[in-house]
Amino acid sequence: MEATTSERERKRESKHHESVVDSKVRTRAMWRSRLGAALRTTLACTIVGCITLYGPVAIQRMLSFPALSYVVVIALVTEATLGDTVRGCWNALYGTIQGVVPGMLSLWLIGPARLSIATATLVVTATALVVVAPQSTHVIAKKIALAQIVLIYTFSSFNGVHKAEVLHPVHVAASTAVGAFASVLALLLPYPRLASYEVRKKCRQFNKNASERVKLFVQAFCAENNATANATMSRANSLTKKGTKILQTVKLMQESMQWERPLSIFTKPRYLNSSDRLQALELPLKGMEIALTSCPSFPVGVAGDENLKTLLLGLEEHITRALSQAKGIGPSESLTESETTKGDVSDKFLQTLQSATFPSGNDLPSFFFLFCMKLMDGRLTADHPQESKGAAEKMSSAPVKKKSILGGWPVKINSERFIVALKCSLSLGLAVLFGMIYSKQFSCWSGLAVAVGMAFGREATFKSANLKAQGTVLGTIYGVLSCFVFQRLSNIRFLSLLPWIIFTSFLRLSRMFGQAGSASAIIGSLIILGRKNYGPASEFAIMRISETFIGLACSISVELLLQPTRASTLAKIQLSNSLRAISECIELITLCSSIEEVKEKEKKLRGVLRELGNFMGEAEAEPNFWFLPFHTACYNKLLGTLSKMADLLLFVTQAMESLTQDSQRVGIACTDLKKYLDGDLDQFKNMVSSSIRCLEKITLIKSLAKLEKAMNSGANTDGDVELGKAPNANAFKLFTADEEEIGKTISSFLQHSREVVDNSEAFEWDEKMKGQIILNLSAIGFCMDALIKQSKEIQKSVRELVQWENPSSQVNLCEIYCKVNALCT
């Protein structure tokens, strides 16, 4: 007993030590990342400062807009790789063509002497509309073009005939070029920060992360009690969050690698599509987690089979070895282990499964876990390296797409895109107008605040404006204080930027400041410390803050006038769209269906859920005013449930595709399987899909009071509303039926699946094939059961949401649906 206790103590201490070491490693990695980004940003700003402040007089005259150079640096260097910066320079060139060339022509035609405030405002508005309208143009190109437009027309209007109409835009272009040059140089020195290297490093981290998660999941699966399983799952959850962040980073850097290809001669082609390969490994890991959280208790029944448990541990060892040998490139990397050994592990695993009893309802989570283990093993080892290699080489040989630069003209602009362009152009025009009315000399800062911070789409306007205002004020004050401290050492005051840039780089990822606030804080200090001949720093700071406020106020006003629909309203509409998309995917669940059509629908569903998340984030950040507060907690639950259902649908598709392929491999027609399973699948689809369709209609209701008013106005009320009966017999069947009735659907499917397996001799399946069929059918059964449970969770959340919006009403979803249906007929 004492020995056992001592062993547990040692294990606990070992785990604690590993946790402390891992925490220190993460902290060091974060510091290296933050400091690296801050130092490169500082280097780029220093290069610009040295050129504009201490360069030859002729160059200083040419670079009369150092603020634009700093803006370009912050846009191109912050958190960037060399590929990002090269792409940014290309976009800066295109933005210069859009901003400077029309500016030269306009000044030549109009003449600076006739460029009044009204004329400058009209030209800025019209030019901005042309720049923003094409959807294909990159955001950086648009921002740089708009910033150049503001500088060209505001300074020309202020200086009038004292400024040569041709040289003025040339100075703007030169300032842009210096910022781009400094950005590239900062990413090259002291060594280049290549996206290809970062992707390789992140892929290795992901493989290590995935290997650790597999080990923890198997430990939890084989746990002897609930406490051990829960503790192991808690450790796995933290690794899951870390793995998700790594995967997101790889996706973001994927396009940058294309821009580095001429410079990265040692980059292997297979790294160019690493995100897809890693995503293929993330799916079965997510399935294992779902399976374990669905297990009613531990130990699970399957883990009691010692033979199967031994083979499961062998499969785990094989997967972790494969991940360690993959060198960060995912499932298509060949292994050093022999194919015979690999096949033995997999074959014995399936052969052992075929001898096991077909799972009951309680065993479905266990068998789904085994299905995900086998799926991951297959994606690591059964892929065809030659095919993957050929696909990667084909991708690497393809030319870099410069769609954002050269594509899009002629461009088809829809009404939504036109509204966005009109909103941006009016914001910029009004900012320039009121900025020039307030102070013609400093009017450019109101326009620059809008141009540089423009989102070209929906965003949390008030939150973004608040962050930009705070960042501008803090950065400006820091610059003024630095000027005061270094007033006798003006030549080295630029060095005070280093601690500020490091500080703001940590704030960049915080919720309090975000990217908008951090960038504004850096630019605010740069413009104070990197300026010359602007007069006293404090006076200039006050004028710049005032002009920035004018620009942000114009941006908010135009946003409210042209896009008055609140984000919370859009989130509610998108919730309805998400329910419809889920319902459409469920309706496609059938054997031998068009897999491509199903996958296309599931891809569309992912996009709809992503848009829902965006609207939720915007709605959470917008002020309530006199409106009902946004129910963030309820929407988060709904999004989580819908996302889980989307994952389950992916597993259903995978299992059905595998089942169809395995059947066809041994010459079994789909009709032979359909006659066993189609009836249960149809019953499941009708029950779940129709119920979700009901919830879709309910979520579109503005208020129950308006619904009652519409009912009392004499609308058609066919269907027994008083009794709460829906005209459609299947409507709300899932939510009104008891557990026993719902359980019959799953039990019937399992019974018919058991009959399919029992007829394996008639189907001429071998032991390996029979084991695979058992896994596929069990996975489908588990996903059906889980989809039913998640649908009930959606029903509870929708009821909570309707009650939140109608606190004085008694909510009965079935009755509400009957009224909605009656009004629609």
Automatic annotation (TrEMBL):
Transmembrane portions of the chain: 37-57, 63-82, 89-109, 115-133, 140-158, 170-191, 418-439
Keyword Lipid metabolism attached: no
Subcellular location: Cell membrane
InterPro entries (UniProt xref): Memb_transporter_dom (IPR049453)
Principal place of residence: membrane
One Pfam family linked to the record: FUSC_2
Membrane topology summary: Multi-pass membrane protein
Keywords assigned: Cell membrane, Membrane, Transmembrane, Transmembrane helix
Domain Integral membrane bound transporter: 430-557
A GO cellular-component term linked to this record: plasma membrane
Region (Disordered): 1-21
Listed name of the protein: Integral membrane bound transporter domain-containing protein
